[in-house]
Write a structure and sequence with these properties.
alpha/beta, Rossmann fold, 5-stranded parallel sheet, about 55% helix, about 10% strand, globular
Length: about 240
């Protein structure tokens, strides 16, 4: 994050006496490398395939197909729905004709891969630390197929000394930031006034537009152009994974 943006955020929160700051997790607090999603899934599939003793391409194909099915068949919650990692993995094991108890293996490899490929956004965490010292409450909000416990585990691995005041993950609630439901759930549960909360995130849609539509303040904290360009270039060569 640019120093000027950090100063702008800090000044706004302290000057206007905001009560809480919420942050996106992936590509905001925890930074991914430039690998696009399908390449990540392919690399996870290689790890999982060794444990399941089946071809990695079969595991990769099952992941793509079963993720689509899990998202399309998830129950509606307040007009929204979201996929869950355990549902994806259960469908994968059925497709691959592997016993249901192997789900723990899939989960273990998924989380280990994430831990190896994520790094902490230290300038942002330093900012959040200063805000916490000033009495500001801190929460994370994430649109993610992993569970809240999984996200807590990844955050604890990257920053063992750090704790948020709470976290909301779309898969556990069935509503998303993108659709606005996760913001509304957070505000309902905490009782906070929307205008007393500032949200930070890398997505102009899910983290800025949707947060503002929920009545909250929002600041866009995008990754740099080098990251975005490299990500696009890698997408062009995804078939080589």
């Amino acid at each position: 994050m640019r120093d000027a943006l950090i100063q702008e955020i800090e000044g706004t929160v302290l000057r206007e006496g905001l009560v809480a700051v919420t942050v996106d997790v992936f590509d905001t607090v925890l930074l991914r490398n430039t690998k696009p999603e399908r390449l990540r899934f392919a690399q996870v599939a290689r790890r999982q395939a060794k444990r399941l003793e089946c071809p990695w391409r079969s595991v990769f194909a099952a992941r793509l197909l079963c993720a689509r099915i899990a998202y399309q068949t998830a129950p509606y919650v307040a007009g929204e729905r979201d996929g869950r990692i355990d549902d994806i993995f259960r469908l994968m094991l059925e497709a691959l004709q592997r016993p249901a108890e192997r789900l723990a293996v899939l989960r273990q490899e998924e989380l280990q891969y994430e831990k190896l490929n994520l790094r902490l956004n230290r300038p942002l965490l330093a900012l959040l630390g200063r805000l916490r010292s000033a009495g500001v409450r801190l929460y994370y909000l994430s649109d993610m197929y992993l569970t809240t416990a999984d996200v807590d585990s990844l955050l604890a691995h990257a920053a063992p000394e750090w704790r948020f005041d709470g976290g909301y993950v779309s898969s556990d609630h069935g509503v998303t930031k993108r659709g606005g439901g996760l913001y509304r759930r957070f505000l309902h549960d905490t009782g906070l006034s929307p205008m007393a909360v500032l949200h930070l995130g890398d997505s102009g849609d899910s983290d800025v537009r949707a947060a503002r539509q929920a009545g909250m303040r929002a600041v866009h904290t995008p990754r740099n152009r080098i990251f975005e360009t490299s990500k696009v270039l890698r997408e062009l060569f995804i078939h080589e994974c």
